[in-house]
Specification:
The strands form 3 sheets. Strands 1, 2, 3, 4, 7, 10, 11, 12 and 13 form a 9-stranded antiparallel beta sheet that branches. It is built from 2 helices and 13 strands, in the order βββββββαββββββα. A hairpin with a 5-residue loop joins strand 1 and strand 2 (25-27). It has 182 residues and is mainly beta.
């Protein structure tokens, strides 16, 4: 039986990419990003049309991946150091952000609940921007403040792979233990 609806973002993970000699890509063990609030990623690309004989003679659509926002409760320290390039001084406990440190590419894994099964997804080649800094005073009620990461998921350089998803099968049970390849 197939899902009729989807709801509920959960189980958000990242897996750092390491590029080896010859451009080979390996993924680290997925690390949880707890506190997923929402995600909205828009498809990137456009339709190109070629006109001949007074008609659209040929048309194609490009797939340039996805771009959008991931809203979470708080950016974990591991993500800040592994992906955003911040540096932690273990002795002093200071985490520092440097203007010349570039973010590391990563795979983003997540799932949406469904009325029958959860659908698990992976975006294979992501980059994230650092979140803004904001907060407000506490009033009568505590209002949690969230952090938003802008995520860009581009086609993977080695084979143009962008995204995969899974609702069942052998990969389903191991989805968050390693990055599953088609």
């Amino acid at each position: 039986m197939a899902n009729k609806i989807k709801y509920g973002l959960k189980n958000v993970y990242y897996a750092k990419i390491t590029e080896g000699t010859g451009g080979t890509i390996t993924y680290g063990t997925p690390v949880a990003i707890p506190g997923a609030v929402s995600m909205s990623l828009d498809a990137q690309g456009e339709i190109s049309k070629f006109y001949a004989d007074n008609i659209v003679y040929y048309q194609t659509a490009s797939n340039n991946g996805y771009e959008g926002d991931l809203e979470i409760a708080l950016v974990p320290e591991s993500f800040r150091t592994d992906i955003l390039g911040e540096v932690k001084d273990e002795t002093k406990g200071i985490i520092a952000e440097y203007a010349d440190h570039q973010p590391s590419p990563f795979a983003l894994l997540f799932q949406f609940e469904g009325d029958v099964n959860a659908v698990k997804h992976v975006l294979y080649n992501c980059t994230a921007t650092r979140p803004g800094v904001e907060g407000s005073t506490k009033e009568e009620n505590v209002e949690p403040q969230t952090s938003t990461l802008t995520i860009s998921a581009a086609p993977r350089g080695t084979d143009s792979l962008v995204k995969a998803s899974c609702e069942s099968g052998t990969a389903y049970d191991n989805w968050f233990t390693s990055v599953q390849e088609p």
